[in-house]
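User: Some background: our group keeps a shared notebook of sequences we're curious about, and every so often someone picks one and asks for a predicted structure to add to the entry. Today it's my turn. The entry only has the sequence so far, pasted here. Could you supply the structure so I can complete it?
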Amino acid sequence: MTSNNDAPKTDSQAKSKNPSSSRRSFLTSAGATSTAAVMGIASLASLAIPSGAVAIETGTISATISPTNAQTAAFAELPFRGPVTMLNLLKFKPDGGFAKYMKYGQGVVPLVQGVGGRRVFAGRPAFLLIGEQEWDLMVIVEYPSKEAFIGMFNGPEYKAIEHLRLDSLETSVLYAMHQMPITG
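Assistant: Of course. Here's the predicted structure to add to the notebook entry:
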């Protein structure tokens, strides 16, 4: 799989310093009035990064490896109840990132299961059909509630293995998704 990090930027990419601002505008105009809801739904990975947060710069897009305190607080304030599904888009560091992530996976699976969560899907992308960002692995995990995820993430057992995730990733995106009814 080749990386598109050196690919020329489109006009809209070159002009946009905050790629999620249009998503926030759309969500606000669509009726999502809570600041926490707009920020949390638009993208947990696109908020301002306070000092001390783990972050990298990829072209004009700043991506975090781990949620900041502000992102976790905004997520906790979201108005939805019930199961929450997390979409993880992962790009590994060369020379051992995948192996380190597999060690992280061995440690995190019992923690996820311990709070009632489950892996829904994990797979390596086979072909990029639309877009420019390529990922090495996509994982979908469901938790019984946002509180279950936050409790696990803030727990001492998770903090003891979190370094494996941080050491393994070049960049990542984590979306919290709430199931919505589809009519048609």
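Suggested note for the entry: The chain has one domain: 11-177. The longest strand covers residues 84-92.
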